[in-house]
Automatic annotation (TrEMBL), chain A:
<feature type="compositionally biased region" description="Basic residues">
    <location>
        <begin position="311"/>
        <end position="334"/>
    </location>
</feature>
<dbReference type="GO" id="GO:0015099">
    <property type="term" value="F:nickel cation transmembrane transporter activity"/>
</dbReference>
<protein>
    <recommendedName>
        <fullName>High-affinity nickel-transporter</fullName>
    </recommendedName>
</protein>
<feature type="transmembrane region" description="Helical">
    <location>
        <begin position="408"/>
        <end position="434"/>
    </location>
</feature>
<feature type="transmembrane region" description="Helical">
    <location>
        <begin position="476"/>
        <end position="501"/>
    </location>
</feature>
<feature type="transmembrane region" description="Helical">
    <location>
        <begin position="209"/>
        <end position="229"/>
    </location>
</feature>
<feature type="transmembrane region" description="Helical">
    <location>
        <begin position="284"/>
        <end position="307"/>
    </location>
</feature>
<feature type="compositionally biased region" description="Basic and acidic residues">
    <location>
        <begin position="335"/>
        <end position="344"/>
    </location>
</feature>
<dbReference type="GO" id="GO:0046583">
    <property type="term" value="F:monoatomic cation efflux transmembrane transporter activity"/>
</dbReference>
From TrEMBL, chain B:
<protein>
    <recommendedName>
        <fullName>Tetratricopeptide repeat protein</fullName>
    </recommendedName>
</protein>
<dbReference type="InterPro" id="IPR011990">
    <property type="entry name" value="TPR-like_helical_dom_sf"/>
</dbReference>
<dbReference type="Pfam" id="PF14559">
    <property type="entry name" value="TPR_19"/>
</dbReference>
Length: 508, 379
């Protein structure tokens, strides 16, 4: 019964996609250094085609373009009137007018465009603008309708009603290429898995097996989501590589990601359920900004501590070509002696009395409280590694206060990673809430978070392994070791700013 | 010192590069003039935003589809029917629900498919017996089908469920149908208290119609002016003999909202003014509109009858009205069938329908004028 009824309504489609009495208009401007060219297109549905015979003279008279306040005078070029078969044996009319007017656009200019042709007629009103040897901003460069031949059937946007526009033009080739949208496109298999999950939540019958499958799939999707850019993986990598990162650090990041993501999605889900006026996209944008800002703050903190520490320890960097037996060399110098010496000397130094350490300034503040903490991994000493990882000078590495700071930094990175929710998790949760399956939805969101955490933790662990494997092969880089804290700090800062900036484009 | 400076410079340079690479949007273009005042536009905007974030939200799909039906009714832009249809079917496909059924029912009413609308409303009420909106669709369908007793009962249930503007406006129309003009006016006034934006304009238009049907041209003119209702203004000016002003309004409407009834009305006035050529042009347009309606699977025999009367083809008018009467027995149909029969010279038969048109007690001035004319010619 329902099917029959729905089928009957489906058949009642209007002849013209925008209605039998629509008059649809497009103005496409092309700005040249010496002139403005316009293509004015008018597409008349069946009834207006019986009422009107649009002439390019009338159309151009109603198209006003002012360059820096002075109106242009159009010269009519070619005109084309096509009559196309419409519904009920009637015709539609497609009129194309080519107009041109001299204009001085070899310097920065501002343009105002107003279309007042048949203002009362319903229909699609579109404008576009491009430049040849000019950079133009203010309008999209391409028509969404192939010059009013095909109309996009987007249920989620009303037909455009652009009758005026303000443009700026300046000499130069157009650097304003439409940038690719922020990450969000996933491989086809992910998209299909996501839609399966969303449909599963909406299914009226939900067997335990399907439910289990859904949870597993949610974990896989979460893992996949964490692979997309924008989750501070780069930052974590830099941080762990540049610092004396350990496996439990990677775990800490993973746990924080899960907690933040789950909590964040749940909070956002409740917020969106409560207030439908809240636009999801802008909320995601703001969260992205928060995430980026957090990372930036971590980078800033790293830089500041590095700079402060440098001031305190500068004198230790002086004795770079001391005798191999000087302990200070092992910890501060760019390690230009042979690696085999290193291990030997290091162990030897260790076997000596702790007093030896204490006599060194650096040892006094480095090793205070936990004298042998860093020496548990003596292999880190052989070579210094990429960016001098394992360098004992890490200010946040030493002492109880340093450990706390470093935990904060790692937790901050974890929060930054989990703060931007997976849109798919959000949809699943909202769907579940709407259907009264809130518990199931929360379970799925938790699974997403676990999946994300698994990816990020695994990435961290792999990174640590790789670092330890290859570090001794890059001894040249050890020369850069003293600059490493600044470099890592600066890099984290830059990436954080980049994340925030990209997110900002969603909000602006 | 050098390294520190270098680090700062490098960071600054990288930040600058990044802000370029991430492509800040310094200027956007306004695709839609924001109209935040009108509640309907606002709810459509919100629903569209929401569905971009949550495409599986069948409740919002249903709400959006129903808003599109409203939008089509208010703007007269039929392209919204197509959108409404797609959005409501999307909702129903995601999950069968009463809101989607109700919206489809409202759409069927808007397309004059009242029997379908009744069926859909009843299905929606089976799912959700407390849906005032579904009762609204049911009331409209029953009223148009001429089942006024059932309609009145449904209005009462709707008022009990939610005594807001939708229920009040149905109650007001029901009261008018039964000749309770004062009660109807009071109900519209009550509805006006809570209405704003396009809803308030709608109520003023209805108050104008109420005055117009009672022959109170001054009140009708005032209300139509507030509502900006061009068709109402055209009728009032024509009735007051200000023909040029009336023709101006008709011409504007013919250009922008060429509905079949309007074209027939316009042609009739042109013909009365001795301008047969432009009248024929409007009738040709009306024929095209009827053909388009038929091609899209719709029918409106009553509008076809109006066109036939405007052309002077009374026999066809009778046939169209009889076809409509076989589908629904609303007083509008009874009145036009009676009038067509009178014009076709069948006054005895005409009297039956003219009496049916006023049987509920309506005080509609035109119906009574038609009835008097028929009685006169029978003497």
């Amino acid at each position: 019964m329902i099917g029959l009824v729905l089928g009957a309504t489906m058949a009642l489609l209007p002849a013209h996609p925008l209605g039998n009495f629509s008059v649809n208009q497009l103005v496409s401007l092309t700005l040249h250094p010496d002139r403005v060219e316009a293509v004015a297109v008018v597409d008349l549905a069946e009834l207006p085609s019986l009422q009107l015979k649009p002439a390019c003279a009338e159309i151009s008279a109603q198209l006003t373009v002012k360059v820096d306040g002075r109106p242009l005078r159009w010269t009519l070029g070619s005109a084309d009137v096509a009559r196309n078969p419409g519904a009920a044996g009637l015709e539609t009319t497609h009129v194309t007018c080519h107009l041109s007017a001299p204009a001085t656009l070899d310097r920065p200019a501002s343009l105002d465009v107003v279309n007042t042709y048949l203002p009362d007629r319903l229909g699609w009103h579109e404008m576009t603008a491009t430049g040849v040897g000019l950079q133009v901003t203010g309008l999209p460069s391409a028509s969404a309708t192939d010059q009013l031949r095909t109309y996009p059937e987007d249920l989620l946007s009303s037909p455009p009603d652009v009758r005026y526009a303000h443009l700026t033009g300046q000499p130069g080739t157009s650097a304003y290429a439409p940038t690719a949208q922020a990450a969000g496109t996933q491989p086809g298999i992910f998209a299909r898995a996501e839609s399966w999950l969303q449909n599963t939540v909406g299914d009226r019958t939900l067997t335990p097996l399907v439910g289990l499958l859904a949870v597993l799939l949610a974990m896989v999707l979460g893992a996949g989501h964490a692979l997309l850019p924008g989750h501070g993986k780069t930052v974590m990598a830099i941080y762990l590589a540049g610092r004396a990162g350990r496996p439990r650090d990677a775990l800490l990041v993973g746990a924080t990601v899960t907690a933040t993501h789950t909590g964040g999605v749940l909070a956002l889900g409740l917020l969106l359920t409560g207030a439908s006026s809240l636009a999801g996209e802008s909320v995601l944008g703001w969260l992205g900004i928060a995430s980026g800002t957090l990372v930036t703050a971590v980078g800033l903190a790293m830089l500041i501590t590095a700079l402060r520490h440098r001031r305190r320890t500068r004198h230790h960097h002086a004795p770079h070509h001391h005798a191999p037996h000087d302990h200070a060399v092992h910890h501060h110098a760019p390690h230009d002696h042979a690696p085999h010496d290193h291990a030997v000397h290091h162990q030897a130094a260790h076997r000596q009395a702790g007093g030896e350490h204490v006599t060194h300034d650096h040892a006094a503040h480095r090793h205070a409280g936990r004298p042998h903490h860093h020496h548990g991994h003596f292999h880190r000493h052989d070579g210094g590694g990429v960016f001098g990882k394992g360098h004992r000078h890490d200010p946040v590495d030493g002492g109880a206060g340093g450990v706390r700071k470093r935990r904060f930094a790692l937790a901050a990175l974890g929060i930054a990673g989990g703060l931007v929710p997976s849109p798919s998790a959000l949809i699943v949760l909202l769907g579940a809430i709407a259907l009264g399956r809130t518990g199931f939805g929360i379970m799925l969101v938790l699974a997403y978070g676990l999946g994300m955490a698994a990816t990020l933790t695994a990435a961290g662990l792999v990174l640590l392994k790789v670092r330890d494997r290859i570090s001794h092969r890059f001894q040249v880089l050890t020369r850069l070791a003293p600059a490493a804290p600044y470099a890592t700090g600066a890099l984290v800062l830059v990436v954080g700013f980049g994340l925030a900036a990209r997110a900002a484009t969603l909000v602006v | 010192m050098m390294k520190r400076a270098a680090a700062v410079v490098l960071t600054a340079a990288a930040l600058l590069l990044l802000s370029g690479a991430f492509g800040f949007k310094f200027s956007g273009y306004q695709a839609q003039p924001a109209n935040a005042v009108d509640p309907l536009t606002l709810s459509i905007d919100r629903a569209q935003q929401r569905l971009k974030a949550v495409p599986g939200d069948w409740q919002t799909w249903a709400a959006l589809g129903s808003s599109y039906v409203e939008q089509a009714r208010i703007t007269g832009d039929p392209s919204f029917y197509h959108r409404a249809d797609a959005a409501l079917n999307k909702s129903h496909t995601l999950r069968p629900n009463d809101a989607a059924l109700t919206g489809l029912g409202a759409l069927a009413n808007a397309r004059h498919d009242f029997a379908t609308a009744e069926g859909l409303a009843r299905q929606a009420l089976t799912v959700n017996p407390a849906s005032a909106t579904a009762y609204g669709v049911l009331v409209d369908a029953l009223t148009q089908l001429g089942r006024s007793q059932e309609a009145s009962e449904a209005v009462q249930r709707m008022l009990d469920l939610d005594p807001g503007l939708p229920a009040l406006s149905r109650a007001a129309y029901d009261a008018e149908q039964h000749g309770h003009v004062d009660e109807s006016r009071a109900l519209w006034r009550r509805a006006l208290a809570d209405a704003y934006g396009s809803n308030a304009l709608f109520v003023h238009q209805q108050l104008g119609d109420l005055a117009w049907h009672g022959g109170d041209l001054a009140t009708a003119l005032a209300e139509y002016r507030i509502a900006g209702h061009q068709l109402g203004l055209a009728r009032v000016f024509a009735a007051r003999g200000e023909t040029e002003a009336a023709l101006g309004f008709y011409a504007a409407l013919s250009a922008t909202r060429p509905s079949i009834s309007l074209l027939a009305e316009y042609a009739t006035l042109l013909r009365q003014q001795g301008r047969p050529a432009p009248a024929d042009a409007q009738l040709a347009l009306a024929d095209a509109a009827l053909a388009l309606l038929a091609a899209s699977g719709g029918t409106d025999h009553l509008a076809a009858a109006e066109v036939a009367i405007a052309r002077g083809d009374f026999v066809s008018a009778v046939r169209f009205c009889e076809q409509e009467w076989s589908l629904r027995t609303h007083s509008d149909v009874a009145d036009l069938l009676g009038w067509s029969l009178h014009l076709a010279g069948q006054d005895a038969k005409a009297l039956v329908y003219a009496q049916k048109a006023v049987a509920l007690g309506t005080r509609n001035r035109d119906y009574h004028a038609h009835l008097r004319a028929i009685e006169e010619s029978l003497k």
